[in-house]
Amino acid sequence: MSGAVSIGLDLGAGKCCVASVRAGAVTVLPNAHGDKTTPSFVAFTDSRSLVGSDVRDQAALSPENTFYGVKTVIGRSCKKIQKNELAYITGNEVRTGEIFMMNLLPEFLITEKGSAAFKIEYRNKELMLHAEEITALLIAKMKSVAEDDIGSPVTNAVITVPVNFSNAQRQATLDAARIAGLKNVTLINSTTAAAIAYWDQHPREKDCVAVVDFGASSLSFAILSIDNGTVKVLEAYGGLAVSGNRIDFCMMRAIVTKFQEKHGKSFEESPGALVRLRTAMEKLKFNLTLLTSYVLQVDSLSHGIDFTTTFSRQEMEESCQSQFEILGNALRRWAKLKNWVKVRTIVLVGGSTRIPTVESLIAKTLRKPLDHSLNKDEAVACGAALRAAELCCSTPREVQEVLSRRVWFEADAENFDLA
Ligand SMILES: Nc1ncnc2c1ncn2[C@@H]1O[C@H](COP(=O)(O)OP(=O)(O)OP(=O)(O)O)[C@@H](O)[C@H]1O
Ligand SMILES: [Mg+2]
């Protein structure tokens, strides 16, 4: 990677964040709304594509043309995803196997290679788009956010991926970056980026930390050491079996049951209703991070009924019990890793680490000091930006990443493939 201007891009399933090193300090670059993160929503109108919060806020109006969570399908075989994750709301039931993201994505065909090709209406034509092309629109948007802030073209980037991303998922991400016009791109695990951001704030000659990154679509964990400037990933695990989106789905299931009990009607599973419900779940979840109980209101949830109910943190814990079990099992395994004794502190990043039950489960199971000093939404982008700036200089610090490792997390008798 060469050239002076470079960015670090946290390409999240839920939001994107871009940062750059300027005058020696790492800065998060805000979008045109002044927000430091941009929701990972892409939509197509008759004449153009749109990205970000405007799309999120109108998602229920045109769910057939709105993409959220494309990261969960990029570089993957749909057949495998369907086998692992296909599930749906049927009447009063959300089957666990999990409803999953594919139900919230627009209509798609499965290509001969097994990947998804999404059907969209654009400029009065029907187009087939691949996850790489939709992801490219997200990347291009973040590139232009950076260019507007920096005031010059950007072609060098470090982009973050979850530790469990396969080679195919990594290659597809690189393809998307190329389509978006980035020329020199390096991928880095989100946990490695977070560790780099941590050392930038807490420099020690020798250190060993664990990073937990719990986001919208994935959970990543790594133990990393730094020794004389060399960052080394000692172990890294992660997967999709537990995630913020899945927690939303578990809560959706509980709300659908409440709706049925209160109104004696089945839940009409229209794409618009699913989007409204999902959006309401995220708001409910955010509020239950701060409050122990919250009054949920969803306009026209089903049969035109405006639904109101009280939902408590305890109800959230009960409805998401399977998710917390998977998380607990993963944490117990990590606490037995051979490098665990070397870990001094646990760095928490990713929005889902804010959930009180998640934080207390991590504290109780891992029993080492938790570090909250990093901004949970921005640290990964900052670490990537620091790495990008290093790669542009003549003597970059060495970063040794391990190949992604996948594990099977167990919940009850069921196994979830994290791939
Ligand atoms: N205050 C909060 N309370 C509960 N959950 C939260 C809070 N803030 C964010 N989240 C959840 O965190 C998740 C987003 O986290 P984050 O932004 O780290 O994910 P991401 O980087 O987009 O996704 P990924 O890393 O999986 O690709 C979402 O599921 C969101 O609902
Ligand atoms: Mg993330």
Automatic annotation (TrEMBL):
Alphabetized UniProt keyword annotations: ATP-binding, Nucleotide-binding
Keyword check for Nucleotide-binding: yes
An example molecular function term from Gene Ontology annotations: ATP-dependent protein folding chaperone
UniProt-listed SUPFAM superfamilies: Actin-like ATPase domain
Gene Ontology annotations for the cellular component aspect, listed alphabetically: endoplasmic reticulum chaperone complex
InterPro entries hit by this protein: ATPase_NBD, Heat_shock_70_CS, Hsp_70_fam
GO biological process: one example: endoplasmic reticulum unfolded protein response
Family: Belongs to the heat shock protein 70 family.
Name of the protein in its database record: Heat shock 70 kDa protein 1-like
Natural source organism: Hyalella azteca (Amphipod)
